Amino acid sequence: MQKKIALEEHFMHPDFVDYWSNTAINISPELFGKVRNKLEDFGERRLNEMDSIGVEKSVLSLAGPGVQAEYFTNKAIEKAKFINDYLAEKILDKRSRYGGFAHLAMQNPKAAADELERTTRDLGFSGALVNGITNGAYLDDDRFSVLWERASDLKVPIYIHPNNPADIPAMYQGHPEMWGPVWSWTVETGSHALRIIFSGIFDRFPNAKLILGHMGETLPYQLWRFNSRWEISNKGKKKLNLIPSEYFKKNFWCTTAGVCSDEPLRCAIDALGTDRVMFSVDYPFEKSEHAGTWIDNANLSVAEKSMVCYENAKSLLRL
Ligand code: MN
């Protein structure tokens, strides 16, 4: 069994269930309860599942959207601090097994940057996981420059995790099954990442690091087309130092979270680089056994498997 680090692994706290339940609309109350129990456990149950597939370390993040859905900014800031301290305390005596991503009150970008700094410096966290938009704003918004700058200074990545878009586009009408993980989250999160590239964030912050889950939200498959078409569509309006695909190889990483399939894995590695793809489960929303068995038997060289399962995350997150 290949030794592993997993980094889209979620937890929950009772005070944050109401935020979460709004995005978990497609699951039955029974499944909701089961998943919630797994999310709130930091002990034997989770550790046994990690052991069963060779996960040495899980980097934990709050199941979204958390305080990004909070109406009051001050309350969001306060609760983000609370949940980061809670995670730090929960994993304190298990630091060899657990790491953490900061949860941020994106309603106030300066406070989010300060909290990112506090959690990485004082709590040993490895960056932040941001659940898509906050009050309709994407991370290419000028207001978030302070966060990109701070993350760059701290040399930590920002993981963009799916969340629902601000409204329901017509293309989903009559097709609720396409809403959420089947398709709409991929469209939303992939578009979020493209906005960041085309807005020139990575020219202004060349050392910024962005992680996407779900094998890069289909983007690795499209790099050639982004390159060939963006100039025509852009008509010279936006200036970028590099062509789009170069940012994917320079500023991007992706995880296998929630996608246990060889074909997109091969595509992600070939498109982004062997050092850019990292194993994850998306616990407890994906089955550990499924993800672990798949990657152990994936059609990769020994060196590739070691990098994808362990070395890349160790290096990026400085574990
Ligand atoms: Mn997830």
Describe the structure.
By secondary structure, the protein is of the alpha/beta class. The chain has one domain (4-316): Metal-dependent hydrolases (TIM Barrel), CATH 3.20.20.140. It has helices spanning 17-21, 29-39, 44-52, 73-91, 109-122, 145-154, 184-198, 201-204, 214-217, 223-234, 244-250, 262-272, 288-296, 302-316, and strands at residues 4-11, 55-62, 98-100, 128-131, 158-161, 210-212, 252-255, 277-278. A five-stranded parallel β-sheet has the order 4-5-6-7-8. The chain has a three-stranded parallel β-sheet with strand order 1-2-3. Helix 4 (73-91) links the parallel strand 2 and strand 3. Helix 4 (73-91) packs parallel to helix 5 (109-122) and helix 5 packs parallel to helix 6 (145-154). The radius of gyration is 18 Å and the shape is globular. The two termini are 21 Å apart. The mean pLDDT is 96. Bound molecules: manganese (II) ion. Residues 8, 10, 161, 213, 257, 282, 285 line the site of manganese (II) ion. Manganese (II) ion (MN) binds at residues 8, 10, 161, 213, 257, 282, 285.
